[in-house]
Amino acid sequence: MIKKFKLYIMLVAVALSSVSCLDKMPEDGIPFDESLQTVSDINLAVIGIYDAFRSKYLYSGNLTLLPDIQTDLVYGVNGNTNVYGDIWRWKEIKPTNTDIEAVYGALYDVINRCNFMLDRADAVRKKTTDDKDLDKLDQCCGEAYFARALAYSELVKLFCKAYESDEDAAGQLGVILSEHYLGDETMRRASLKDSYQFILDDLDRAAELLELEEDFDTDTQGTLYDSIYFNEYTVHALRARVLLYMKRWDEAIKYATKVIDSGYYYLSSCTRAATSNASYYKYMWTNDFSTEAIWKVGFTVNAYGGALGQVFANYDYSTLRPDYVPATWAINLYDMNDLRVSAFFQSFTTGYSHGLTWPLLIKYFGNESFTNYNILHVSMPKVLRLSEQYLIRAEAYVQRDQPDYGKAGSDISVLRTARYSSYGGSTSLNKENAMDVIEQERVKELYMEGFRLHDLKRWHKGFERTPQDQSLSNGSSLKVEKDDPLFVWPIPQHELDAPGSEVEPNESNK
């Protein structure tokens, strides 16, 4: 998938074309040294990087859905289409699984677009004298460094073991690190420690290049929330997530606090009305606008990615035939005053012959403005949200050497106040209950947003499924022990078999 990457690029009116693995340049290709000659060309390349995140194999599809479908959050329904069936059944996940291959390939596609642009940036900089153009070039490079860090953060999350310590990570397998588009980089996995350090180094570069001006004014220069572009605070938000995964608790607190205290983002309230029909929180899911979205993948009716809600509804303007329905235990976690329930779930009688009536996931039923064009179940993925930063900080507060249960409880209280019809008092946390509360809050807030598999992996927890009404017999009775090899996805078989490959497999490949 990533061997050598002797790729070509076709510059078109608005963006980069798709890339392909080829051994030689096609006749109509533009040679590497002749491509991206100006700052305008570099900007087009960045547009291509953003466009790559629209892939249905990334946040608007596989990358978001598979890690949660694989765990205990949903159940396959009798009579379903078997989409993602191997993933849900767990034990049938193989190195040849095409859904996993697609995630791996799409993430390295992002990385290679970034490398292509970054490798050409210096040559363009040498020919550029205009200060505004130089500033624009720096911004483009910052966006590329961030995009590469984001893609690698997802690869290590899915294809590597959890980060336990620097010493342990130095002996664990990471991912193949590719820093240049054309080069002699060996197809060999770096250590997990080096892989995470690569991500942090890219975030350092991105933070420097995307730093906001001291006089940045949202009144005159626009808001930062609900952005489809990267900026300094998307860098801080991703860094907080990565540092949490690295168990660097104090640093995770530091960067989550930068985002929370910035004043640029506000939790979307479940009680304040955005329209006559929806609260600000519900509007985030029905119309893809939110004051707490730090970065979302931008869609239009003419350019969008996958349909996140398809497998939870399969609505054909007549009936609903969901492939997967929410797990009872997850729904039962919500308090009776928790208004996330009405934003996420609604009871329907399905169109199956067995007539299952169940609370279906409507969180991704689709952007209402898209449905006017008969585009169903398409939502813009909110990849980085303020609520996650509160959860990151709360967890870090209770996990650090000197826990601060009061501050952690305060963060949970702030989040619940924005989500409950009423939430009086404070959240009392202590050594015995703190992680249980935080783990449950992550399920309730981040339901089906792609976090569950890695959360269980890094917490060293297993799970158990027990059959519920009309759930598939193959997969409904499943007990997965902690540290099961399949918490780490297998490296795609074609990557292991590629000529010249020195890629080592995961335990799940065997």
Automatic annotation (TrEMBL):
Domain RagB/SusD: 357-497
Keywords, ordered alphabetically: Cell outer membrane, Membrane, Signal
N-terminal signal peptide: 1-22
Listed PROSITE patterns: PROKAR_LIPOPROTEIN (PS51257)
Region (Disordered): 491-510
Residue ranges of domain SusD-like N-terminal in the record: 79-213
Main location class: membrane
InterPro entries, A to Z: SusD-like_N, SusD_RagB_dom, TPR-like_helical_dom_sf
Subcellular location(s) of the protein: Cell outer membrane
GO cellular component: cell outer membrane
Origin: domain of life: Bacteria
Gene3D superfamilies, A to Z: 1.25.40.390
Protein family: Belongs to the SusD family.
Name of the molecule in the record: Starch-binding associating with outer membrane
Organism expressing this protein natively: Bacteroides stercoris
